[in-house]
Amino acid sequence: MKCIGVDTGINALASLNNGNQYGKDIKGCIERVKRCKQKSKGYYVAKRALKQRIDETAKEIIKSEDPDLIVVEQLKNMGYKSKLKARLSKSIRASIGTWNWKYWLKRLEMQCELNRVSFRTVSPYYTSTTCPACGQTNRGNRNGEKFLCLNCGHGDNADVNAGKNILNRFLTGLYGARYKQENLITNFL
User: Fold this and answer.
1) Helix (H) or strand (E) holding 182
2) What's the CA gap between 48 and 187, in Å, rounded?
């Protein structure tokens, strides 16, 4: 059974636990939408191009990886009160709004349903700052796109590392234990 953990990001739309990254050109599409005046003709053209690229990426993952299970972060309330608490800069808030992460997750889920792939979500907390080798969580582990554990020295791409943690969180958690039991029973019968 092939299980894949997917980290969603702006630099690469999907970073998988096996090291593959899809949608590396998504940042250019997002920047194009941000540059356009809202509700202009160019704005709608750029948004359509962004959505088309998201659709292509979702199909590409399913086609090239041929997974049995895809696990993603449960992304919700990303922009909730971020302006009030000054957690995110104006530029990042604009990118998150333009990027349309809900659309991305819906399209990936739809592709999973069409291809009979199981789709699950896990909590996103500390996935990009936790070391999959030793389990230590520290903000200093991540420096931009690079991950280097301060405890054991494990190094990796930060988004790929998050994909590993997402899959580990599912497989070692309560839901993963149930999922393994269900599949063992169906495979046995």
Assistant:
1) helix 174-188
2) 42
Query: 3-188 — its CATH code?
Result: 3.30.420
Distance CA 90, CA 67 (A): 37
CA angle 75-43-107, nearest 5°?
Answer: 35
3-state secondary structure of 113: helix
**Residue spans per domain, the chain:** 3-188
CA dist., res. 37 & res. 34, Å (int): 8
More confident residue, 92 or 75: 75
* Token couple for 107: 């399209």
Separation between Cα atoms, residue 101 and residue 106, nearest integer Å: 9
Query: If DSSP codes are grouped into helix, strand and coil, which group holds residue 73?
Result: strand
Task: Quote the Cα angle for 158-160-115, to 5°.
Answer: 150
In this predicted model, what pLDDT tens digit does every residue of 85-115 receive, in sequence order?
555 566 666 666 656 788 999 999 999 999 9
pLDDT exceeds 50 at position 82? no
Q: Distance (Å, rounded) from C-alpha 164 to C-alpha 168?
A: 6
